[in-house]
Sulfotransferase (Geospiza fortis), 255 residues
Amino acid sequence: MARVLHRAAGGACACLVPLGGDSHQPHGAVIPSWCLSRLLPYHPLCFACRSLMPRTLDSQITVEKTPSYFVTKEAPRRIFNMSRDTKLIVVVRNPVTRAISDYTQTLSKKPDIPTFEGLTFRNRSLGLVDTSWNAIRIGMYAVHLQSWLQYFPLSQIHFVSGERLITDPAGEMGKVQDFLGIKRVITDKHFYFNKTKGFPCLKKSESSGLPRCLGKSKGRTHVQIDPEVIEQLRDFYRPYNIKFYETVGQDFRWE
Ligand SMILES: Nc1ncnc2c1ncn2[C@@H]1O[C@H](COP(=O)(O)OS(=O)(=O)O)[C@@H](OP(=O)(O)O)[C@H]1O
């Protein structure tokens, strides 16, 4: 059984949702995500929220999901200080596609932002990429990983391929379950491929027992980007990707 603390809309808070058919009711407790990412975890509000959480039972694993922790400088130290045995799971995908997906998402909320090309380069003709733009910075996985390796051994970090999560969800979930040291409960029996959506969907959702696909904002058409810009970004990310593959001992084939 797993309990999931997940980031809510806007990334402002995380709330507790038990997974699985046990009788434990979800609690209304809310932990602001800045408890780990920005401010002190011992801030009174964080402390108060945490004290509202039910204790994790021996048969349960508590899972917290906040994508921004991977790129938050202080997060490794704070998580280590909270529990050095924490297992970390990171979903990674081709950083070029990731940047375009990120931009597509932002554009859907703020249609007035500059073009992708405009934000990507500090100087396009010189091929100078703006690494301070989050959509670019986040995909420099090798850089962020170094901060985590100062606190956690690689054996405590598992990388899920975002690409294989679509083509082989059961295979990726199998590896996650092995990494967590739990029985392989989620298998290919749980998924079907929805051609219209272009994504795997659950045959039966935990809550309603009905088929469930990812929401409308997932798998939406990406903004069209000049192929030359894509090529420049591929070149930019190549050394970071190679370093990342070497560090984790896994080739994600993002070429
Ligand atoms: N389960 C699963 N499998 C494969 N891919 C997935 C999954 N969940 C989310 N995604 C894709 O990840 C991209 C960002 O997703 P999110 O919107 O959930 O991220 S975030 O909450 O905005 O950080 C977004 O990518 P694009 O659709 O290409 O833009 C999601 O489709």
Summary: Strands lie at 2-7, 13-18, 30-32, 61-65, 88-92, 121-123, 128-129, 157-161, 191-194, 199-202. The chain has one domain: 2-248. The longest helix spans residues 227-248.
